[in-house]
Amino acid sequence: MTETPTVQFLSVEGEFAPTESAEEYRSYLDRLSETDLQDFYRKMVVVRRFDGEATNLQRQGQMALWVPSHGQEGAQVGSAFAARPQDHLFPSYREHAVGLVRGIDMLAIVELLRGNTHGGWDPTDPTNGNFHGYCLVIGSHSLHATGYAMGLQRDGVVGTGDPEVDAAVLCYFGDGATSQGDVSEAFVFSASSQTPNVFFLQNNQWAISVPVSVQSRVPLYLRSRGFGVPSVQIDGNDVLASYAVTAKALDDARGGGGPQFIEALTYRIGAHTTSDDPTKYRENAEQEFWVKRDPIVRFEKYLRSLGEGDAFFDGVKTEADDFAADIRARTLVLEAPPIGTMFDHVYSEPHPVMTEQKLWLERYEASFQEEQA
Ligand SMILES: Cc1ncc(C[n+]2csc(CCOP(=O)(O)OP(=O)(O)O)c2C)c(N)n1
Questions:
Q1: What single string gives the DSSP state of each residue in 231-294?
Q2: Could you tell me which of 275, 300, 303 has the C-alpha nearest to residue 34?
Q3: According to a count of CB atoms within 10 Å of the terminal CB, is the N or C end of the chain lower?
Q4: Contact 264, 200 (CB under 8 A)
Q5: Cβ(75) to ligand 1 under 6 A?
Q6: Which of the listed residues 136, 138, 179, 180 should we mutate to test ligand 1's pocket, taking the one with most ligand atoms within 8 A of CB?
């Protein structure tokens, strides 16, 4: 197995300094206008602010759990911008920035983690940008994504040569997910059928408390090659690398070139979830190393070198604060759903055991009112 160097356009200091391996992707950056670059920055800042507000809301008892995305904005925003409207995106549960780029109402993620809804948003609603539901069962959605891509193939919307018609599937998962059999099976099926899949791994270095060095003896991007799925490793904290490499992979997949695998090297700056305490298993020095590679700070330096000034950055900050305030206000007025709805989606058809359990719960709840009377 030959290792190839990591694709990177922006140095840690935010200077445009493409690595040799980035040259192949350089022309993809020509597609970007100044407004696009501003939007990359805007989305990264807004989602980080949203993420912070959601964490605060969890701490104030508005949600049982929050899953932070702080640090992974570069990988997510770049790759999501690379997708075309007709592409389908399958997230795991940390892809808040991808959801934002695809246009979902971010309150839906809060509602999901607050237990107000079972899915959060409807992926078949055209306003949700083909952004599929969050999936907490690690790696399982890689098979859903592969099945969906097989469906696109059979619908004849792959390799027609018409860029408005051809579609691909972009599937996100973490380093821990690559240890699941489901991901290996997804590689087998996508390689066998040459499906239009792009698998996007955010290697944030930890699967809760298990470091990537324990999870794999080889760099993770080499995994898929044994299945016949070509792969690239990128600097996941470089939004430009994430955009360009994903754009090419999606173009190839839509054109009938078969599946592709991208490993984005990034870092989960905070805790795995608000229930986790990384100080129990992580060294501060490691975190500091990654904080210096912050995707937002780096991209801001780059934009400033292009001539972007304070007015733009101040405007984005205000926008992000307003966004967070809106999410907070709308969260605080959410009402709990009727308790029985938890039984409604276990089976697609009515099921006698569910009906019985629902009735039991209703009687149980009513018994408190009887006691009070
Ligand atoms: C099938 C399955 N096994 C175990 C878990 C418990 N679990 C939740 S998150 C997680 C770690 C996942 O790590 P990774 O795939 O790297 O994603 P990250 O959370 O770091 O983004 C585990 C083991 C689960 N949700 N599903």
A1: EEEEETT-HHHHHHHHHHHHHHHHTT---EEEEEE----S-SSTT--GGGT--HHHHHHHHTT-
A2: 303
A3: C
A4: yes
A5: no
A6: 138
Q: Which long-range contacts (CB under 8 A, 24 or more apart) does 158-166 make?
A: 158/196, 158/253, 158/254, 158/255, 158/256, 159/254, 159/255, 159/256, 161/255, 163/84, 163/254, 164/86, 165/86, 166/86, 166/196, 166/254, 166/255
- How many angstroms separate the alpha carbon of residue 174 from the centre of ligand 1? 8
Burial class (CB in 10 A: 0-12, 13-18, 19+), 79: buried
pLDDT in tens, the chain (373 residues): 456 789 999 999 999 999 999 999 999 999 999 999 999 999 999 999 999 999 999 999 999 999 999 999 999 999 999 999 999 999 999 999 999 999 999 999 999 999 999 889 999 999 999 999 999 999 999 999 999 999 999 999 999 999 999 999 999 999 999 999 999 999 999 999 999 999 999 999 999 999 999 999 999 999 999 999 999 999 999 999 999 999 999 999 999 999 999 999 999 999 999 999 999 999 999 999 999 999 999 999 999 999 999 999 999 999 999 999 999 999 999 999 888 888 988 898 999 999 999 999 999 999 998 777 6
272 is catalytic: yes
Q: Which of 42, 114, 268, 298 is catalytic?
A: 268
Give the predicted TM-score (pTM) of the model: 0.96
Q: Ligand 1 center to residue 203 CA distance, Å?
A: 12
The one catalytic residue in 31, 281, 347, 364 is 281
Q: Are 311 and 317 in contact (CB under 8 A)?
A: no
CB 77 within 8 A of CB 44: yes
- Cα three-residue angle 79-82-86, rounded to 5 degrees: 115
List the structure tokens of 144: 């859903």
Ligand 1 centre to CA of 273 (Å) is 11
Residue type, 33: S
25 given a catalytic annotation: no
The residue ranges of DSSP E strands in the chain, in sequence order, are 88-90, 169-174, 197-203, 206-207, 210-211, 231-235, 260-265
